[in-house]
Amino acid sequence: MLVYADLPMSEVVEEHPSLIPVINRFGIRLGLGDKTVEEICADYGLDTDFLLAVVNTFLNEEFFPEKKLQTFHTSQIVEYLIKTNQDYFRYQLPNIERHLTSFIHRSTPGNQTLVLIGKFFSTFKDELVARMENDDKEWFPYCLALSEKLKDQKIGINTHPRETAEDALEELLADLKRIMVKHLSGEYDVNLCYAVIFSINSLERDIKQHNRIRYRILAPMVEAMEKIQV
Amino acid sequence: MRRTKHIGIISNDTLQSTGLQSLLVDYFAPVEIGYYTAFDCFTQANVDFDYYFTQAETFILNADFFLPRRTKTVVLSDKLPVPDGCSCRMSGKLLSNGCNIINACSTQEAIIEQLQHIFSAETASANGEKNKELSTREIDVLQLIVQGHTNKDIADRLNISLNTVLSHRKNITSKLGIKTTSGLTFYALMNGLVSSDLIS
Known about the structure:
The structure holds two protein chains of two kinds.
Chain A: H1 9-15, H2 20-25, H3 37-44, H4 48-59, H5 66-70, H6 74-106, H7 112-149, H8 168-183, H9 190-229
Helix pairs in contact in A: 6-7, 6-9, 7-8, 8-9
Chain B: E1 5-10, H1 14-27, E2 31-36, H2 39-45, E3 51-55, H3 56-61, H4 63-66, E4 73-77, H5 92-96, E5 100-103, H6 108-129, H7 136-146, H8 151-158, H9 162-176, H10 181-190
Parallel strand pairs in B: 1-2, 1-3, 3-4, 4-5
Helix pairs in contact in B: 7-9, 7-10, 8-9
């Protein structure tokens, strides 16, 4: 389903509560009333087209309007990616950790499998944190500096279809989920286990979308800017 | 992951194929569908499909093509259902020959059940071929991967070629469904294939 500017935002969110973290990143809070997407964007001073593009690519895995997304300003894209990183760091990672810690503690003590799952998650977390640090210190400032420097230039982006790069973070999360589903053994707390898998699944989905924007929008933009600069 | 089914629909009945298309997408995802109004258009496109859906006349007129593929072909019929035991009279021998007929007038429930049956024959045979247990050699390779050895290193130690190592790795990943080294480590530890002090 595609979301349009004249739909009431509350209806959209009721139908897809998984959008709540996404709109939160734009600063939008619940208590949406009867306002349309467009009206909400006006209230918050947001670019409606950009919000719609993000929301729609989030909801529809098949939908990815590359051309359209590349017309937005580098700073908009970078800002959104920064916000998603912050969201992972402040909420999603701690959320998984909270569930995982009680999952491990409340299940039978000495269930080695669960301890290993805990370690596996730390591996993932370390990699994600390292990527976010690199984003903050190196890559994002570099992208922004480049776009500032070339702000008066017209940039033609070469949209050759790129291979979707295999991403280590996505693979780690997919493995973590699969391992729990296929190889869990011994006694464990079923309810907390579900909570862990559910939170992992939300993060996995979010990172997939982050990566699509990262590799298929921001990376080609930067590549194009680098070419002009040379 | 379930494999995407590539399905070709060859029919001049737009409503019928649209209906079929939406049933396939709704109930049998992931599918990729090619739609052709006539057999000529299909031959021009020159593509291969896992399954073909077509009308009885097209089937008979192009029996050279469809007969060898009859287990992969589904004939869409709009005749009233035929009682059991009596094969479709119009198409005679051609159709009674092990190909699938779906009657467009059946209820949706019956059609879905028939489709399920057709597709499940395929999945069953695909699963039968796969042995999910690792072989002794694959376990050797897995143990070395987990201990952090490079492919080259593993080849030297086991006295096998680099290509063999790569193909073992590929098989391990496809048998276990685990891609990352961290995931493989977890699997090996859990199944007692390595002890935790061997892992740095």
